[in-house]
Amino acid sequence: MSKSVQRRKNTKQHDYIIRGGFEGRERLRVLSRVMQPTTLALFQRAGVRPGMECLDVGCGGGDIAFDLARIVSPGGRIVGLDIDEVKLQLARRESRARHFSNIEFRMSDVAVDEVKEQFDFVYARFVLTHLRDPAKALARMYAATRSGGVLAVEDIDFRGSFCHPKCVPFHRYLELYTQTVQRRGGDPNIGPRLPELLKEAGLQGIQMSVVQPAGTHGEVKLITPITMENIADAVLAESLASRREIDSIVTGLYSFAQDSSTVLSVPRVVQAWGYRPRP
Fold this sequence. Notes:
By secondary structure, the protein is of the alpha/beta class. Helices cover 45% and strands 21% of the residues. It has helices at residues 3-14, 21-46, 63-72, 85-97, 134-143, 168-183, 194-201, 223-230, 232-237, 243-258, and strands spanning 53-57, 77-82, 103-107, 119-125, 145-157, 163-164, 204-211, 214-215, 263-265, 268-275. Helix 2 crosses helix 4 and helix 8 (223-230) runs antiparallel to helix 10.
């Protein structure tokens, strides 16, 4: 096994708190459907258009890459990078089933690997929050952005999560998620830092927006219990809760989500984008 592959495996196992593989893919599928309207609006504001070459960093199962592939056709192409080979295999399979010919999925970790090409549009969603050194990852993304190109990121501010009425399992979930990310060296509240990080990376014309899907019914309410299920292994590994408590929290969250009289949100999401200066 090469040193770079071993580093990717170690990074995935130690830092990323959300379960990978098939189960993680199914969570991302739900999350992508919930986030799709606001992410597509970001792409429009950032100027994504036909003919562009785009890089999707942390592409997961490929949902965003599929949307980008439609937007940049004809003439454009998408490269998706991720550290989870299972998700990449699923993405390649789904891409073939959807008859996309302008997408390529590669195993690569922006935390340790340089990107050898340059793109018109470089994007990452919910990646920087998990990294010990998000500035270094952004430097690599900046280097992968052509002069005059756009670099855009979306990431969370977990402090903005809310529910109504008060739900004890929900607030315990917020504590456990926050503590687990922090134990692994990430920042669960990185969202408001994004404009500053983009400026430090060298971008100009930086803009931002804040979005937060919430509701009384539908998949937006399922993100919370599904995420709690998918961080269970990391919570246990950090000795922050017992299996019995985790199971109780998950049950309570599903019950709360299924009650049409309650409100649940995803974390507050900051969208930020800027332009690499022309020489």
